[in-house]
Amino acid sequence: MIVQNRVLVGVDGCKAGWIAVIGNPDAAPVAKVVASFAVLLAALPADAVVAVDMPIGLPEFSQRGGRGPEALVRPLLGQRQSSVFSIPSRAAVYADTDEFTTIEAWYSAHRRASDVAKTTSDPPRGVSIQAFGIFSKIREIDALLIARPELRGSVFESHPEVAFCRLNGDRAMQLPKKIKGAINPAGMEERKALLCRHGYGRAFLDQAPPRGAAADDFLDAAAMMLIAGRIASGKATPFPNPPLTDRFGIPIAIWA
Predict the structure, then answer these.
(1) Inter-CA distances, 208 with 7, 30, 67, 105, Å
(2) What domain of life (predicted)?
(3) Which of these, 35, 101, 110, 190, has the minimum number of CB atoms within 10 Å of its CB?
(4) Which DSSP string corresponds to 42-76?
C-alpha cells in the first residue's frame, strides 16, 4: 500500500472533525482523528498524497446532476449511486457561515442556502440536507486550496463507493454500509473483505475507530488511502478526464 516511499493518506469527515488513515513507508497504517484539515496537513510531509471524501472545486452555477463528476460516476454504482449527491454553487455553500447554536438556526441556514442555490442553478434546485451537513467541511478544504495553490497537486477528491467499485474490478458493492441510518454488518463485512484483498490486515480493520469517528467513516478513510496509492502510482482515473477547474483554478474531479 506504500508507493515510492511516499506517505499515503485517506481522509473522511467525521463527527469530531476528520478521520485519517495514514500509511508510512515501512510501517503499519495508523488511524487518527484531527479537529481540522489544516492541522492534518501540517503534520504530513510535503510530498504526501491525500485522498479525501469531500467535494473539491465549486461551480459558480450548478447544472442538472451536479458539478460534472457526479453524473459520470453514478452509472458505475448501480444501487449505490444515491450515495453520490450533487453539490450546489459556491454562493450556496458560502450563503451562511455562522456557527449554529440551535436546531432552529440550523434549519434557517439550510433554507437560506437553498434559496441561494435555486437562483444559481438550472433547473432551479435547492440544497439537500446531506449536502448542507458537510458545507462547513467543504469550505474548510476550499479555503485551504484557495490560499495555498501548491496543495492542489497533493490533495485529491475521491468518493468511498466509487473507490470500492474501482478496487472491486469496477463492480459496485452489493450491500449498503447503512440501512435507515444504522450500520449494516453485512455491508461492512463486504467492504472489509475487499480492503483485506488490497493489503490491509484484518486486525487493523476490526479495531474500534478512533474516538469521534464512526465505523463506516473509518472504513471509508481506509479505502481513500488505497486511492491515494493509486494516484501516487499513476493508476487512478479522474472523472472527468481531464478534470474541470473552478474559477480559482482548483481541479474538479472524483479520483478512483
Answers:
(1) 23, 12, 35, 34
(2) Bacteria
(3) 101
(4) HTS-TT-EEEEES--S--SSEETTBSSHHHHHGGG
Domain assignment present for residue 93? The answer is no
Report yes or no: 176 and 81 within 8 Å, Cβ to Cβ.
no
Q: Is 59 exposed, middle or buried (0-12, 13-18, 19+ CB in 10 A)?
A: buried
Quick: pLDDT tens for 45-100.
999 999 999 999 999 999 887 888 999 999 999 888 888 888 899 999 999 888 88
Q: pTM here?
A: 0.94
Residues 167 and 175: their CA atoms lie apart, in Å, by: 15
Name residues whose C-beta falls within 8 Å of residue 3's C-beta, 6 or more positions apart in sequence.
49, 229, 232, 233
Task: Quote the number of domains for the chain.
Answer: 1
Containing structural domain, residue 163: 1-85+145-256
DSSP 89: -
How many C-beta atoms surround the C-beta of residue 4 within 10 A? 11
Q: How far is the C-alpha of 68 from the C-alpha of 227, rounded, in Å?
A: 20
Q: Is 105 within the bounds of a domain?
A: no
> Is 96 part of any domain?
no
CA angle 251, 112, 93 (to 5 degrees): 10
Residue 133 lies in a domain: no
Distance CA 159, CA 8 (A): 16
